[in-house]
Amino acid sequence: MENLPDRSSAPLPADASAQAEADLWNVQGIVGQLAEIRRKWRTVNAQHAEYGVESFPSRVRLAKVVEELCGALFPLRLGPDFVRLHNEDTFVTQTLQIAFSRLQAQVRLELTYSSPDDGRDINDDRATQIVLALGRELPEIRRLLDIDIEAAFRGDPSARSLDEVLICFPGLLAIIHHRLAHKLHLLGAPLVARIISEISHGQTGIDIHPGAQIGEGFFIDHGTGVVIGETAILGDNVRIYQGVTLGAKNFPLGPTGALIKSLPRHPVIENNVVIYAGATILGRVTIGAGSEIGGNVWLTHDVPPFSRVYQAREQNLVIRPSSEDEAPA
Amino acid sequence: MENLPDRSSAPLPADASAQAEADLWNVQGIVGQLAEIRRKWRTVNAQHAEYGVESFPSRVRLAKVVEELCGALFPLRLGPDFVRLHNEDTFVTQTLQIAFSRLQAQVRLELTYSSPDDGRDINDDRATQIVLALGRELPEIRRLLDIDIEAAFRGDPSARSLDEVLICFPGLLAIIHHRLAHKLHLLGAPLVARIISEISHGQTGIDIHPGAQIGEGFFIDHGTGVVIGETAILGDNVRIYQGVTLGAKNFPLGPTGALIKSLPRHPVIENNVVIYAGATILGRVTIGAGSEIGGNVWLTHDVPPFSRVYQAREQNLVIRPSSEDEAPA
Amino acid sequence: MENLPDRSSAPLPADASAQAEADLWNVQGIVGQLAEIRRKWRTVNAQHAEYGVESFPSRVRLAKVVEELCGALFPLRLGPDFVRLHNEDTFVTQTLQIAFSRLQAQVRLELTYSSPDDGRDINDDRATQIVLALGRELPEIRRLLDIDIEAAFRGDPSARSLDEVLICFPGLLAIIHHRLAHKLHLLGAPLVARIISEISHGQTGIDIHPGAQIGEGFFIDHGTGVVIGETAILGDNVRIYQGVTLGAKNFPLGPTGALIKSLPRHPVIENNVVIYAGATILGRVTIGAGSEIGGNVWLTHDVPPFSRVYQAREQNLVIRPSSEDEAPA
Prior knowledge:
Largest interface: B-C, 91 and 83 residues
Enzyme class (chains A, B, C): transferase
Strand order of the largest sheet of chain A: 1-4-7-10-13
Helix content of chain A: 40-55%
Strand content of chain A: 5-15%
Oligomer: homotrimer
Protein name (chains A, B, C): serine O-acetyltransferase
Family (chains A, B, C): Belongs to the transferase hexapeptide repeat family.
Largest sheet of chain A: 5 strands, parallel
GO molecular function (chains A, B, C): serine O-acetyltransferase activity
Order of helices and strands of chain A: HHHHHHHHHHEEEEEEEEEEEEEEE
Number of domains of chain A: 2
CATH topology of the largest domain in chain A: serine acetyltransferase, domain 1
Keywords (chains A, B, C): Acyltransferase, Amino-acid biosynthesis, Transferase
């Protein structure tokens, strides 16, 4: 969602300045009712309101930061087209300096929101430390992404080059966002991390919670509809296809009847597992190393290593000549 | 789809002004053929062509209007970052005045398109009435959205705050768009409504027809692939997951062999129903209150209240050790 | 992914020019490590690096070109709102001239990348020939799209007009992109074609490889999650719904153990076939003309013409009264 109305390019209607005093469209009553709703909401949700009601990270600004980090990680491919071999390092230097400053501002907003009582200076310093720590991880993130790209290239007959994978495959876009978001999640900026995940979800249809742990050489093909939950753990060289869900089976309630947050409740997928399109694996189950899970399989229990799990489909299909009555779906 | 080529930032190539008289890229033949196709199309589809061929609402401009309405509904979260507690009402006032003016122009285009014979003044007045009526509903829409946000927060263990739900959950983005679009659909601007729905569909992968009736406390988790049809009716506190379809089973044909439009053909989902990922419910069936529909279930008949419907899956799964022959899918 | 950081609207922080010499955010170490990773990568992947490491088509620029081509194909609907009947041809002329120039630059980048040894002049000329050939096909593409629009209108009870289909239906957006991309794929610009496909995939959730051959009157309803593979062949008047996969069953390996690229491995769908939501058809199988494939069906073998294939679902559904124990999913 773009949340920055662009005033410069979309000024008030020509006659609006003259009518500024007037109540164009009779909005005053609506404005008053909306203000009253906000006032009541903030009273009822005081714990939230106190948490820095004026502070919240911006999706639009974080989208910009991620673009810049992508450019710094892959300057000739994801940077602007003035980047050449001779000015790569200059570009990366300037871009990182800008991106880190902007990211620090967004992390500071999160910390002010979640810990308003800690004060401005402490949150400012914490935000700086988080961004510095992310920066130190960038070379490792680039290293992991190179392995992801190679895994995709090896796994998809339609890929013509590593560069095509990087530029064209939504799975790569999702994993770039995830590897950045997961690090920020661990470093103490879970909200900024979640927003970054959702930026990617909106662009790719791939929904990976920033808490999910994902090993090396991860490949998602096509990807639309993939869901990977907060506490999922994936080993190395895991490959998954569109529509795969690694989800929770049920949600334990605490003594007050409210959901218990953040309990381990998503699958563990060991090394070298392949999960085909539309498969659903739910709960804290373990899929043993080297297994293949067939398309549309529904699994809620452990599977030993080197298993092949698929639906016994044949017996359930009905094939008959077409007639003029009702369509099957 | 962005449909406004930005001329200012992307001028003609350097040598183009010199060649402006020339036929750069030999386009004249193509232009002529395209014009001929349009001329013929308009002759064949005269009923459409007469319906204000020059008038049609703009997806880009409606996206802007919806952004502004989102900002007015949640100024500190979905508005621009200069909004603070002290200037909230000023921001909401100005934003609504701008958004309503722009929306009126788009609704007027729809009315000119669908009822060109009614004349400019009548359509202009109708458009104004529709926008004023939408405005009066905004406080109620905000009230409903607050209940939706609380339902999502209660239903998802990964949500840390109500604000996180509002900013990060695509289901919320979809329901904001739907509640605005549904009202416009009822008020007589079904095309503007449909465009708003599709803006949300493109961003979230959640496809809710503006005609669908949805009660209070609606929560869609993850959401990619959800489809809710035109005549679906959902009660209060309904929760659905990614990939759920509430669709039509078949499409009755009228005496001319053409589809009958707008007949009730989608499910009725009563209060407090949960529908898990990938379930498909088709036709004008009723799912009784308090029922749970399991993942991937395919339902084309009524279900009584407080039912649990799920697949008897175990017997159909084949699990065997991996070998080197063909992959299962 | 937007890859053009917008420097004008987002200048360096106020104090940055003063610190330009300093190492803001201590990035020098990171920059050095990233440079070293790139250097090693280019050594290991020399065959790629030589392929014009500085040349690669831009997703952002191609998105612009496609917007312009859409405007030229449907000026009053997908063009900017200053277009009227009286200036349609002028608009189409200027827009095609700009779009072709820009597209030629992107195709040239692809050719330089894939065939750097052929030299600047040869690649420049080839790119021009490809764009001229695409231009000659535009009237035919418009003709096909008109038939697609009519097929959608006939097939969906919620559609009120042909224009609504064009503006609102993501399936139309996908097929516009595909018909352009497929032509570019055949003309020798497969990378530019693939990028155009992925622009559409990101916007619609519909993933059609540019290699897929698709006949007249193609209609995709809702569309999120649809995947159509590189070597699929679809006849005329095929209709598919959300979540349908036309995929590969397995990937033969060549003598070196690497995947064999581009072998026929996706389904052939004959004329007048309907495939309902969530169906999965895998491998080089043929679905005979006039068949209907039911929702969620999983098919890996041929089906004769005029078949109806659906799941025998009833026997596998368990319906029982709700209790307080664990949720079904």
